[in-house]
Specification:
RsmE; Ribosomal Protein L25, Chain P; tRNA_m1G_MTases_N; alpha/beta; Alpha/beta knot; 16S rRNA (uracil(1498)-N(3))-methyltransferase; methyltransferase; rRNA (uridine-N3-)-methyltransferase activity
């Protein structure tokens, strides 16, 4: 993946945004809290459960891999406190009520909270099917940690396939990363898609950024954009997109952006673009709330 174009001096308007603290704004609706709230990053060990207790004093059964992790790895016992999350924003604090050979019961110490997702949902489309070793694992893991809403393997002329076994493994990587970083909304790993299938999605998106060699520096492009509910990040394979592929995506509405003067690996370009856009959308949210 090659991304060219020197970063110019930041424009004054964007420099002011960068000088502000990159904080998320807590959005409270009844029992809801923001995904970036300190309450989503507690010190208690956290485990996944599709079903959460409905109210304080209610209990749910935990079995399978999470049960084994709790009892065999962490050696938790009765009365130990834990947190349960369901991957869609639900979170409760509770304690282990009882343990038997097949599972354990967790009783809620409070009513469940519903945590709101980030204001802008960033969807990553990256051609990483040909990456060797653990590089694809690393890409998916870091996208999860940074807060991407979804990752989709992109099939291109120079990265035409990805094995089903690898997709299954990446699902497990994403799940483990969500637990490790205490993320409450699981990242979706979509099935591989071809560029022709991607084009209608690009045409409907108001924020579609296509990393291409010699593209307009990303910071310059952001100076003319405003925050939307969702956005797309499109990263090409090793060797970059073909001219034909770039033409199809730009004609569909994607904005070409550059990521600096050096040749970047697929996973490096993905992280650079995603991290910058996450910070940018956070800053835009802070400005909007500050002006209201």
């Amino acid at each position: 993946m090659q991304a060219l174009g020197h970063f110019p001096l930041l424009r004054p308007s964007f420099s002011k945004l960068l000088s502000r603290s990159w904080r998320k704004v807590s959005i409270l609706h009844s029992s809801s809290i923001s995904d970036s709230s300190n309450q989503s990053r507690g010190s208690l060990p956290r485990f996944h459960s599709d079903v959460l207790p409905s109210y304080k004093g209610d209990s749910v059964r935990v079995d399978g891999d999470e049960f084994r992790h709790m009892t065999k790895v962490l050696r938790l016992s009765v009365d130990d406190r834990v947190e349960l999350f369901n991957g869609t924003g639900g979170l409760i604090k509770g304690f282990i009520l009882k343990i038997d050979r097949t599972g354990l019961d967790v009783m809620a110490l409070e009513d469940p909270k519903t945590v709101l997702p980030n204001s802008t949902q960033w969807h990553v489309f990256a051609a990483f099917g040909t990456l060797k070793g653990s590089r694809a694992d690393w890409l998916v893991e870091k996208c999860t940690e940074l807060g991407a809403s979804s990752v989709t393997p992109l099939l291109t002329e120079r990265s035409p396939s990805i094995s089903e076994n690898r997709v299954d493994r990446l699902q497990r990587v994403a799940f483990a990363a969500a637990k490790q970083c205490q993320r409450l909304h699981e990242m979706t790993l979509n099935p591989p898609t071809k560029i022709k299938t991607l084009l209608p999605i690009v045409s409907q998106s108001k924020l579609s950024f296509l990393a291409v060699a010699e593209g307009t520096p990303l910071i310059n492009t952001l100076s003319f954009k405003k925050m939307e509910a969702s956005g797309m990040i499109i990263i090409g394979p090793e060797g970059d997109f073909t001219d034909k592929e770039v033409k199809m995506m730009t004609e569909a509405g994607a904005s070409i952006v550059g990521l600096g003067p050096h040749r970047l690996r697929v996973e490096t370009a993905t992280m650079a673009l995603l991290a910058t856009l996450m910070l940018w959308s956070d800053s835009q949210e802070s400005v909007v709330v500050g002006e209201s």
